[in-house]
Amino acid sequence: MKESATSVRNREFFPHECMAGLMSSMAALAFTDSTIGDFAVNVVTVLILYGPAYLANTGAMLFGKWIPDKIGFDNHKIDGGRVHSDGNRLLGDGKSWEGLFGGGVFSGILVMIAHYMWDENTPPSDRPFIDPLLISDSSDWFWIGNEWGAAFVLGFTLGFSCMLGDMAGSYVKRRQGLKREGEVSSKAPLLDTLPFAIFIFLAAAIFFNDQVMMHSDLRSPIIAIIVLTPIIHRSFNILGYRLGLKSVPY
To answer: How many angstroms separate the first and last alpha carbons of the chain?
Structure first.
């Protein structure tokens, strides 16, 4: 049985009390879905747990375009301007190294904030605001330094995976000639959204399968989120556009 982040901090001071409290809280760890309302709350819970990774695209825009434009800094295109044999760019100007890593950093910071705000929040009573490090401890591979290092690495890994999925989708779109041109969308909503969502949840299953975000009760809500991703992504993009973080609303 794992100790939560707060329990690790307190263990040496209150060993018996912490273990008793931990066993009690872990026994109650369940995302009940007996009603449609419960299921809907679980869907929102998944969205909030994975929200930092979904917002990696916003971080990519901040670090890859918005900040460079503000300070007059030229970003570095991942494909280096190289053209594929089909005559189209490999990835295009929208994919930069700054955006790739910036998206991961942004997600890492957001998970740190989520952990700070919802430290040890447990289901079902605290849904949808569940601590992403609820059942993490120093034995986990991503526990680097302390709980804050763990929160950052978890968020960075999922955010970076999101950006890799986004790049994969962009590569496929360009091979099909479905590239974005200025203010005109590529008109490929599924390739704009599903690859990064799949990469996020695939990374979670590979690297964080024993964490609360991959709880067995959340499998159906995860599928629901993947199906709803095109709508969610569009909403986030419109918000980013209205806030001036994106040059186009898609």
So the answer is: 44
Nearest one of 32, 9, 34, 37 to 22, comparing CA atoms? 9
Q: Where are the domains of the chain?
A: 49-242
- Residue 11 tokens, joined: 């263990």
Print burial letters for 61-94: b (CB count within 10 Å at least 16), e (below 16): bbbbbbebeeeeeebebbbeeeeeeeebbbbbeb
Report how far residue 207's alpha carbon sits from residue 201's, in angstroms, rounded to the nearest whole number.
Answer: 10
Distance, CA of 80 to CA of 84 (rounded, Å): 12
The answer to whether 38 and 125 are in contact (CB under 8 A) is: no
What's the predicted TM-score (pTM) here?
A: 0.81
Q: What is the mean pLDDT of the chain?
A: 82
Backbone angles phi, psi at 192, to 5 degrees: -80, -20
For 70-80, how does the pLDDT look when each residue is reduced to its tens digit (9 = 90+)?
A: 888 888 898 78
